């Protein structure tokens, strides 16, 4: 069985301790992952710190050109890395295009694009004030060493979201992948680190204690984290003690509101994938659906037909649309929430039964006759289950959408875009989509409000978030 290694200072680094990475579709062990020691975390941060001044001093055009080379390496190795994503995370290989399910190949295409876009952006000095007496110019400077902590749901893509803007801005990075999906990320970094100077991009792998050692290191200058609100709160507490800035993309529990004038047949596919892309294991997936009484039964019927038509199985096999839940801890949470809903009198429209057999498979499940306050509605299920809540008037739907202390994304579905926009403006979320859900774009800032985190990624605003302003003020 292959034992994988970290990349530190341009070299492959093994660890005395390892742990298994398992295929969530079959339960088979895929390989052994290094459990980084505290000393190895210190070494990785030290390597990043030593490499950072020279990396920041490189001409901007050189950094951009190297990142474009990185994008080509990702493209050249996309099939190899996509297979690791499918085997380790579970999403189908899928592909890019209107007739293919966005799966692991889509994730690797996203890695390429989200590398190219930061490489193409500029942050010129900005004259913010000038008169006869003075001239004030804002320059953007790198923080230094950035700790990036990536999740298991989009393990390569979200790592790229954290890493590439940081490198583009002149920072160096120490990346910790999720312990559930480490191999693909370690392989990605192994390949692209060959293009970069030693120490610019490093990895440390292992459970939560490794992440804790990373964020506690005094030479970390900024932390980027994507994951649960609970873990984010612990990281933020550490960062506050060390006076280290953070970007936090935390839990969502996004609301989707269907307005009474919507066409159920026209919106059904968008709603379905807005909720069940990556088996619902997406921070900005629709996780609670509010439907008016006049459309409720029709919307449910349309979604049920789609759910029952989607083939579920091992994503390495052709024709598979939906895969397993990535890990057993999340699987057990999803099952518990559905069972609680059943006990509370909810109706299981489809799914809702464990299929048995190997792997973490759970059917796409639609739940009706459920209201705000139920655990399945109020807690982020992060799985292939969607509670559908009937409402009487739009004001009550808006109040329901805003009642929770999260606000990553939301969506409004209507035949009248202006009416939908008026509702969207009243929703408490970092992004509100109209007639689509979860459609992030590399040029559009993305981030949450309330307990869904702070700071943004993507585009110029995301690039600025991995820099700090320096004002040069000149007396005339």
TrEMBL record:
InterPro entries: Ald_DH/histidinol_DH, Ald_DH_C, Ald_DH_CS_CYS, Ald_DH_CS_GLU, Ald_DH_N, Aldehyde_DH_dom, LUC3-like. Residues 1-15 have a biased composition (Polar residues). The active site is at residue 249. The keyword ATP-binding does not apply. Gene3D superfamilies: Aldehyde Dehydrogenase, Chain A, domain 1 (3.40.605.10), Aldehyde Dehydrogenase, Chain A, domain 2 (3.40.309.10). The keyword rRNA processing does not apply. Residues 1-29 are annotated as: Disordered. Residues 16-471 form the Aldehyde dehydrogenase domain. Keywords: Oxidoreductase. Belongs to the aldehyde dehydrogenase family. This is Aldehyde dehydrogenase family protein. The lineage of its organism: Bacteria, Pseudomonadati, Pseudomonadota, Betaproteobacteria, Burkholderiales.
